[in-house]
Design goal:
Elements (H helix, E strand, L loop, with lengths): L7 H18 L3 E4 L10 E5 L2 E10 L3 E3 L10 H11 L4 E7 L10 E5 L1 H14 L4 E3 L1 E3 L9 E3 L8 H7 L2
Parallel strand pairs: 3-5
Antiparallel strand pairs: 1-2, 2-3, 4-7, 5-6, 8-9
């Protein structure tokens, strides 16, 4: 199966749809924004009086490039912190991974807060940092050779994870 079967636009549309689906499946009401000028989040999930703003990031290659534009002239740790400072602290990221998922299959989904993502990026490559958030990738060369960058299990979607996001 080819690694990339969708255009970036298709990845974004599919990721948003799956994010809305998993949140609705967990018993939340979901409102999806469709416009050119979205205010820092893609959808809002509500449960009772509690609202959760969600920024959805899709991928079909095993990673999410989140902080490359912050790297210029900065260390990886500084880039991660700069990126984190630019994020709305009450917006959770929903990471949707399509790599290796057949058409009709469900992608792997993770939820993480900006600070969790920044801290994870800083610990990547055996503590040397990285600009790409990898789902599960072992570095082949350089200072991180042999180190496996893997998302924390605690980020994986589950009914309990979604419940915890509303606390």
């Amino acid at each position: 199966m080819p690694t990339k079967t969708m255009t970036p636009y298709q990845v974004a549309v599919a990721a948003e749809a799956f994010a809305a689906c998993v949140l609705a499946h967990a018993g939340t009401d979901v409102s999806i924004q469709y416009s050119a000028n979205q205010p820092g989040h893609d959808l809002v999930a509500t449960r009772g009086r509690r609202a959760l703003k969600v920024s959805v990031k899709g991928s079909q290659d095993g990673g999410w490039g989140l902080i490359q534009s912050y790297k210029g002239g900065a260390s990886y740790a500084q880039a991660a912190d700069r990126w984190c400072a630019d994020q709305d602290e009450d917006v959770v990221f929903c990471l949707v991974q399509f790599e290796g998922v057949p058409v009709g299959g469900a992608p792997r989904i993770y939820f993480a807060w900006p600070r969790e993502i920044a801290d994870h990026l800083k610990s990547s490559r055996a503590g040397h940092g990285h600009t790409i958030l990898y789902e599960d990738y072992t570095m082949k060369k350089g200072v991180g050779a042999g180190f496996t960058n893997k998302l924390p299990v605690s980020w994986a979607v589950s009914a309990q994870k979604i419940e915890d996001l509303f606390r």
